Amino acid sequence: MLFGGNISTTALIALRTLQSINAVPVASNGCGKSSPAELIPGDAPANFTLYSRVGAGERRYLLHLLSTYTNDCPAPLIIALHAFGQTAGSMEEVTRFSDSDSNQDYITVYPEGINNLWLGDRGAPNSSVVDDRAFINDLLDSLESTLYVDTLRIYTTGFSNGGAFSDVSAACYAKNSLGYSLFEAEPCMTDQRTRPLPSLDIHGDSDGVIAYNGNNSRFDIDDNGIPDPDTLPIPRWLSDWAIRNGCASAANYTMQNYPAEGDEANATSWLQNETIQQKSWTCDGWANVVIGYYVKDLGHGWPSTIALEGILEDYRGGPTTWNASTFLMGRLARWSLPAAAAL
Fold first, then answer.
1. On the CB side of 202, how many CA atoms lie within 13 Å of its CA?
2. Element (H or E) spanning 330, and its range?
3. Which GO terms of type biological process are on file (predicted)?
């Protein structure tokens, strides 16, 4: 079953993006090297495998280069992580990150999880058996050695279980750390005072897998007659990020018995003819470091104006009035790691 009932109750994301703050590009060791023969800029994504010892052996991923890619100009990289039960190819099709209409600058890689799920899902193997974080780290090493990657502009984004795992993949094991794990008993904590850790969430008000308010009692994704367990409310998740980033404003707030502080956003506005509510926080003088988008009539899916097929469209509830992928490109362009992070 796609998505299933095994979404992590720790980090609940329909769409997740990690970023950081502007700096001059720093190129990887792939500068001047020829890309793999089967990878032609502008063509369809190519299938590759990578041996990851700690990451459970041979792993698969799709890789796409835009027609504008050259080996003499560093390009930013997006790691796009699929949902539980979804394939890397499906993630590429849904996000359209390989489409020049959506993406004109970024190398895009679509890793694939073992049995199509990622660490953080309750059905995933223990990290001592399959460590997806190590796989992502090995993948970055491989890409940076063969492609001309701007190592200050590596981003993770994901859908559902992939969105939750993006917190992990950009953290403890990734050499260009843009965040930290929410899944470990002793999470890997970056120096929050050195720089904010921008984060973005998009969630639908009609999500039938992970309720915005955390109350999933009316859902039975496994169809076993047992209501799905409650999950962390999205406002609480956003407020936790705001607190970690030292964002201004704090308010006492309770939803589904989860007390939270700092839930009061610095700014709230409506977009797309009032179909999308935007809540944003300013942190250490940086505006819009933490952003939450609450989308009217969106179910559990990736927002786009293009119709999907089968269960993906059933869960999403139909096309939306905007394309999240195109929108994200503008947001990502604002952020990069400070140069010291690449040393």
1. 29
2. helix 324-332
3. xylan catabolic process
CB 50 within 8 A of CB 80: no
- 3-state SS of 229-253? CCCCCHHHHHHHHHHHCCECCCCEE
Distance, in Å, from the CA atom of 88 to the CA atom of 295, rounded to the nearest integer, reads 25
Asked whether 271 and 265 are in contact (CB, 8 A), the reply is no
Amino acid present at 245: N
Backbone φ and ψ of 22, nearest 5°? -50, 140
Q: What does the alpha-carbon distance between residue 237 and residue 284 come to, in Å, rounded to a whole number?
A: 19
In Å, what is the CA distance from 316 to each residue of 10, 250, 343?
22, 33, 42
Instruction: Give pLDDT tens digits for 85-140.
Output: 999 999 999 999 999 888 989 999 999 998 888 876 666 555 555 778 888 888 99
User: Does the pLDDT at position 257 exceed 60?
Assistant: no
pLDDT higher at 247 or 195: 247
d(CA 24, CA 131): 32
The span from the CA of 112 to the CA of 85, in Å, is 10
Amino acid identity at 220: D
Length of the chain: 343
**Tokens at 157, concatenated:** 């984004």
Q: Longest C-alpha distance within the chain, in Å? A: 58
Q: Determine the Cα–Cα distance for residues 93 and 26; give it in Å rounded to an integer.
A: 30
Burial class (CB in 10 A: 0-12, 13-18, 19+), 112: buried
Question: How many other CB atoms sit within 10 Å of the CB of residue 10?
Answer: 16
> Which pLDDT value is given to residue 173?
40
pLDDT of 15:
41
Q: pLDDT band at 255, cuts 50/70/90?
A: very low
- Model confidence pLDDT, tens digit, residues 144-176: 988 999 988 888 899 998 988 886 655 444 344
